[in-house]
Amino acid sequence: MRFVSDLWRILRADKGALVGGVIVAIYCLVAIFGPVFVKVSNDQDANNAYLPPSWTHPLGTDSLGQGVMSQIIVGARPIMIVGVLAAIITIFIGVLLGLLSGYAGGLTDSVIMRITDVFLTVPGLPLIIVLAAVIHTTNPFILACILSITAWAGLARAIRSQALSLRSSDFVEAAKLQGVSMGNMVGRQLLPNVGPYVAIHFLLAITGAIYAEVGLFLLGVAPIAGTNWGIMINLAMSQGALYTTDSAFYLFSPMAAIVILQVAFVFFSRALDSVFNPRLRVQ
Amino acid sequence: MLRYLAKRVLMALIIIYIVLTLSFFMVRLMPGNPMAALEAQLRQQGGLTDQEIQQRVAAVYGVLPNAPVLTQYKDYLVNILHGNLGVPITNPGTTVVAVISQALPWTILVVGVSLIISFIIGVAIGSAMASFPDSAFSKIMTFVVSFLSAVPNYLIAILLIYVLTATYQVFPSGGAYGVDARPGLNGPYLVSVLYHAVLPVFASVVTSFGGWALAMKGSAVSVLGAEYVRAAESRGLSERVISRSYVGRNSMLPMVTQLALSIGFMFGGSFFIEYYFQYPGIGYYMIQSVNNRDYSLMMGCFLLITVSVVVTNLLVDLLYPLVDPRIINPAARRRADAPGPDSGTDDATTLPVGGTVA
């Protein structure tokens, strides 16, 4: 519980981080429970197109007369699921390879680091676009795999250098003398010590994945099916929302939803950073 | 020294080879791959013999689809070594290489200019933030910079288009120069080129200078705490000499490396900007080709972007020993590499959104 009380103390002092954390929490709740309460109705009525905000449609309606607000709420889940999945995959691969490479050393280390170098050098976004274009998947898990294709490499590098410094510490020596297994060494001894760094990287990996994911939908590279923020912006743009003045709410609502979430993640991660890095708190 | 060079060059060649191989298997061997799709499409149109279909496909991709895989692979590598990337499916009159070489200068213009501008602004703001950590300027800038580096660049692009080209038609909505400007070294053409580049450059500067500022601040703060700075202070050196020769130089070193590395990476980061401003660079053509299912052009752009990133990285690696001689001296390198207790935590805060993927 040290962690929770530390976090709360930092959040209370840093208003930006507090607001960020609250917003992230709200988005998570909306993504989990939103689609239960809100439905995007199927009835399309051109007479209701581009209505200004009203009590029934708080953010107006789109070109088909459907509420923008309900689409935003329903569209939160696919974005968040893929973002979180991609971050989990990134963290899992990055931490596993980093710890293994840093602790095992020798040939294992060389092989893993050469592979990591390849993924560090290959530019991520072009590779993601090409893969998404060829695979053309609607499966969130596969999409998440594509999004994390190069993101893990930087993390693996950083974790490796931490594992290298942990390797020479006393408690690792002690564990080694006890003859613990490789699984215990990596999972029970090393992992808890890189936890803080991983937690912060997790949040940033989510923002990175959401950035690329929404981008894929904007460019029309990922299949346009269902409702999410990227698809909303894509449709709004292709229906000429730039040139009709009534459609401002339709175009800018999903954009605002993305910006608010991304900024909230960044500010929240800053608070997390100072919880885990007492050094920063002093500064 | 020679060993260091040879190792780097070899590594770069291996990466390029892996990327070539990967793209070969992606386009030719995956289920529902583009080459089989083109074959099926031609067969459906009818009126073509099997022979003709094979020749059409071969004209686009440069290899015969019904040849053994290894032969195809060999042909593909030979073609690439000869600078032959095939023909765009949607525009058979030209070659992929011709399209790319037309697009490349525009990408380099916009990317280069915005990279330099955002680097200068970022470094200036970052060093100011580090020198006056408790000032109001620093507090405001911390907020602004964190905010801007979290906003995706495509949203800024859409916003700019909405306000400045659609609502108030201040700037042109696309192209690299106006229709009435005649390409060449004349005044109106150059003015038109600059005029068309303003929005793309602005959009990418707004979203990328924050990352530079945070990185510069981090770098300067870590140098400020170094012992040689304290030593210089206690020797009674003037404030100006310390900030210029001790703090300035040392905190700029990682920034310059980073700048050199991002020259390659910015090729991949300009997709959204070029796509929305309809700016005819590499990124624009790559997205166009994806949307038109023009896979030969798509892979050509992808290969070019990847190879240019790898080559820039190689050049940085080769030039870096001139800046920092410790790199090629193994003993000194081990000392420089030795991770401190907090190594790796610094870049987490300076990582801009998209920095993890681009």
TrEMBL record, chain A:
Question: Does this entry carry the keyword Transmembrane?
Answer: yes
Primary subcellular site in the record, as a coarse category: membrane
Q: Give the transmembrane ranges.
A: 16-38, 79-103, 115-135, 141-159, 190-211, 217-236, 248-268
Which Pfam families does this entry report, sorted A to Z? BPD_transp_1, OppC_N
Q: Provide the topology term for how it sits in the membrane.
A: Multi-pass membrane protein
Q: Which CDD domains match?
A: TM_PBP2
Q: Where is the ABC transmembrane type-1 domain?
A: 76-273
GO biological process annotation, one example: transmembrane transport
Q: Which SUPFAM superfamilies match?
A: MetI-like (SSF161098)
Give the location in the cell.
Answer: Cell membrane
Keywords, alphabetical? Cell membrane, Membrane, Transmembrane, Transmembrane helix, Transport
Gene Ontology cellular component annotations, sorted alphabetically: plasma membrane
Q: Which InterPro entries match?
A: BP-dependent_transpt_permease, MetI-like, MetI-like_sf, OppC_N
State the family named in the UniProt similarity comment for this chain.
Belongs to the binding-protein-dependent transport system permease family.
Identification of the protein by name:
Peptide ABC transporter permease
Originating organism: Microlunatus endophyticus
Automatic annotation (TrEMBL), chain B:
* Annotated GO CC locations: plasma membrane
Q: Tell me where in or outside the cell this protein is found.
A: Cell membrane
| Pfam families assigned | BPD_transp_1, BPD_transp_1_N
Keyword Transmembrane helix attributed: yes
Sequence similarity? Belongs to the binding-protein-dependent transport system permease family.
Q: Which PROSITE patterns match?
A: ABC_TM1 (PS50928)
Q: Taking every annotated instance into account, which residue ranges of this chain make up the domain ABC transmembrane type-1?
A: 104-320
**Name of the featured protein:** Peptide ABC transporter permease
Database matches in CDD domains: TM_PBP2
Q: How does it sit in the membrane?
A: Multi-pass membrane protein
The biological process GO terms on file are: transmembrane transport
Q: List residues traversing the bilayer.
A: 9-30, 106-128, 140-164, 193-215, 259-277, 297-320
| Keywords for the protein's UniProt record, in alphabetical order | Cell membrane, Membrane, Transmembrane, Transmembrane helix, Transport
